[in-house]
């Protein structure tokens, strides 16, 4: 067998650049490129290798390691997990900055390859700069933080280990059930060591990802239960999009009249105005979807992990006999005492359409009730998004209405944390698949701008709107400069409610005193007034502040005409939110000197009692 002399870093990067994937549309590189912030732990090894492979594998520079990883994750999600990116950092803070992003990818089942530098395997300069020293374990490094938030973790202490580690990493990134972040902690001295690499290791490899076929018995069981159900409901999760099941879902619901609700990850699988779409479900849900979930005698969850915001902390969706979980991951399919169906969502939808071809469809009484309830919710949502009267500060919903009214039908909205994900889930009119990109599995402040860069890379022909609060902007705004430097056109709408408005509302709801959330309630010397428009302009963006919804709509029109990124700032009311959501279990103290906490605790215990009765 012929071999080539390469450093470990050169071999790794050449291997990754030559991995191809075919999802039925022809081969294409799996990795679209690499994000890199260089330091002493990766610049000489991985950095040199990336430069040598820059024509096969483009490299981009960011300003924060967490931010660049968010961009990679945003790209992977927008690409429906069909392509991914690489993120490399030095050891120490460069690596640990990426741990938050790794956790986000892990929670959301999204592929990203992390290549953080690591300590010297040889231990020649032990301890090297930024090395974590464990007094009882000499093998520990800062990169061990990645272990619980990686689907696959390995530490490369010899070049030859790459021959097994890299194919295992690829298999994880492309597996429908195990998909998630991979971390290969790359010892910095090993990166520079040369070895003889087999030619076939560096030959392009084509991967055809496996598809989990539905069992015929499961198809028959589920079709039979849907025929017999008086009040059926589908819950559409992100797995429908990742399976490419949007068209199959459309055929099933059109043929049967089955109503469906959407999770955060599933929203937009079909347009918001589809006749069967009841909208968002759960804590951030619409009244009609939550009413349907409460009354349904059969709930079929498609490609969702059913976290507490979706289930209303298991008070809205209690699990048990009336719940069927269709998921490629057995871990998710067996949750909540559900009847498990381990299968690809698209294939199951296609099979159900065929099996129910002679079905009478959804009972008329159930369908008619939901049509009427849907009209009521649509009227409520339209009222919430209408411009405010007079000189009142607008609500989040009213800002969403202004953005939505001018956005093209194929626009993509990006959000992540605070109150906006709830309002967007309920109110944003997603017109096409991929038009709703809100990270709410990890609810990570600071994801928005960085994630939007990845979204725009994945969907360059679509307008990308970023909606975030002042808290998220202050937590991570540096990648706005990256968007400008890459000539990435995103439109950022910054809602300034002068603090953490969402958590301030939660503090009030649980009986707490106003404290440390809004800036006026924080224990500082004085109120801090921040000129966000000036700051955004200093990073190179077009920026302006508006003082009304009318002014916002005019500024959005201007932003849509520009080539570069824009930031529009508007002050909002921190206390107003749209109704419709289900209960969320947030524990209230059993004892407190505050009477309001006691009142909130008694209400909380009543909800727990009601939940236990339902279970």
Q: Can you describe what's shown?
A:
The protein is an alpha/beta fold and 615 residues long. 39% of the residues lie in helices and 17% in strands. The chain is built from 24 helices and 23 strands. Helix 3 (65-78) packs across helix 18 (447-458), helix 10 (246-256) packs parallel to helix 14 and helix 16 (396-406) runs parallel beside helix 23. The longest helix is centred in the middle third of the chain and has 22 residues, at 364-385.
At a glance:
This protein is an alpha/beta fold and 615 residues long.
SSE topology sketch:
Elements: E1 3-7, H1 8-17, E2 19-21, E3 28-29, E4 31-36, H2 43-52, E5 59-61, H3 65-78, E6 84-89, H4 93-96, H5 99-108, E7 113-118, E8 152-156, H6 162-174, E9 182-187, H7 188-192, E10 194-198, E11 205-207, H8 216-228, E12 232-236, H9 238-242, H10 246-256, E13 260-262, E14 277-280, H11 287-295, E15 298-302, H12 308-311, E16 323-327, H13 330-333, E17 339-342, H14 345-355, H15 364-385, H16 396-406, E18 412-415, H17 420-427, E19 436-438, H18 447-458, E20 464-469, H19 470-475, H20 479-485, E21 491-496, H21 501-509, H22 532-538, E22 542-546, H23 549-561, E23 566-571, H24 595-614
Parallel strand pairs: 2-11, 4-5, 4-6, 6-7, 7-9, 8-9, 12-13, 12-15, 13-14, 15-16, 16-17, 18-19, 18-20, 20-21, 21-23, 22-23
Antiparallel strand pairs: 1-10, 2-3
Helix pairs in contact: 1-2, 3-5, 3-18, 8-14, 10-14, 11-15, 16-17, 16-23
């Amino acid at each position: 067998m012929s071999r080539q002399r390469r450093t470990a870093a050169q071999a790794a990067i050449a291997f990754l650049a030559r991995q191809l994937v075919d999802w039925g549309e022809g081969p294409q590189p799996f990795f679209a490129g690499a994000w890199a912030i260089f330091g002493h732990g990766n610049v000489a090894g991985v950095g040199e290798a990336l430069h040598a492979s820059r024509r096969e594998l483009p490299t981009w520079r960011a300003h924060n390691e967490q931010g660049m990883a968010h961009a990679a994750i945003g790209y992977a999600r927008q690409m429906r997990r069909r392509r991914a990116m690489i993120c490399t950092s030095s050891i120490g803070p460069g690596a640990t900055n990426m741990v938050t992003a790794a956790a986000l990818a892990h929670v959301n089942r999204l592929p990203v390859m992390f290549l953080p530098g690591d300590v010297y395997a040889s231990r020649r300069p032990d301890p090297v700069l930024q090395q974590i020293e464990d007094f009882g374990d000499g093998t520990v490094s800062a990169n061990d933080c990645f272990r619980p938030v990686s689907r696959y973790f390995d530490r490369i202490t010899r070049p030859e280990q790459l021959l097994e580690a890299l194919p295992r990493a690829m298999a994880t990134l492309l597996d429908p059930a195990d998909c998630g972040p991979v971390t290969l902690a790359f010892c910095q001295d090993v990166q520079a060591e040369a070895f003889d690499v087999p030619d076939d290791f560096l030959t392009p490899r084509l991967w055809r990802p496996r598809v989990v076929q539905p069992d015929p018995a499961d198809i028959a069981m589920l079709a039979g239960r849907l025929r017999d159900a008086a009040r059926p409901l589908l819950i559409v999760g992100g797995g429908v999009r990742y399976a490419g099941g949007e068209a199959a879902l459309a055929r099933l619901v059109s043929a049967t009249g089955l109503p469906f609700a959407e999770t955060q990850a599933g929203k937009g699988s079909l347009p918001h105005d589809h006749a069967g779409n009841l909208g968002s479900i759960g804590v951030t849900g619409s009244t009609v979807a939550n009413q349907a979930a409460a009354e349904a005698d059969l709930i079929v969850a498609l490609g969702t992990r059913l976290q507490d915001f979706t289930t209303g902390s298991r008070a809205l969706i209690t699990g048990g006999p009336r719940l069927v979980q269709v998921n490629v991951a057995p871990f998710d399919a067996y949750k909540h005492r559900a009847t498990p169906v381990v299968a690809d969502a698209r294939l199951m939808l296609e099979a159900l359409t065929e099996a129910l071809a002679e079905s009478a469809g959804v009972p008329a009484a159930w369908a008619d009730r939901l049509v009427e309830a849907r009209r009521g919710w649509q009227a409520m949502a339209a009222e919430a998004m209408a411009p405010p009267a007079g000189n009142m500060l607008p609500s989040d919903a009213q800002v969403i209405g202004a953005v939505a009214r001018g956005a093209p039908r194929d626009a993509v909205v990006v959000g992540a944390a605070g109150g906006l994900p709830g309002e967007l889930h309920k109110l944003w009119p997603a017109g096409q698949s991929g038009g709703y990109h809100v990270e709410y599995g990890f609810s990570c402040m600071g994801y928005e701008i960085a994630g939007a860069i990845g979204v725009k890379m994945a969907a360059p022909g679509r307008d990308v709107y970023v909606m975030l609060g002042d808290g998220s902007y202050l937590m991570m705004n540096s990648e706005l400069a990256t968007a400008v430097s890459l000539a990435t056109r995103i439109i950022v709408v910054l809602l300034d409610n002068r603090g953490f408005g969402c958590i301030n509302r939660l503090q009030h709801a649980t009986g707490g005193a106003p404290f440390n959330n809004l800036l006026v309630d924080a224990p500082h010397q004085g109120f801090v007034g921040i000129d966000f428009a000036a700051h955004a302009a200093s990073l190179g963006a077009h920026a302006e502040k508006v003082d009304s919804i009318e002014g916002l709509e005019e500024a959005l029109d201007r932003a849509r005409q520009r080539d570069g990124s824009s930031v529009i700032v508007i002050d909002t009311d921190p206390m107003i939110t749209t109704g419709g959501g289900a209960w969320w279990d947030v524990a209230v103290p059993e004892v407190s000197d505050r009477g309001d906490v006691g009142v909130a605790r008694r209400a909380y215990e009543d909800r727990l009692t009601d939940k236990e009765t339902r279970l």
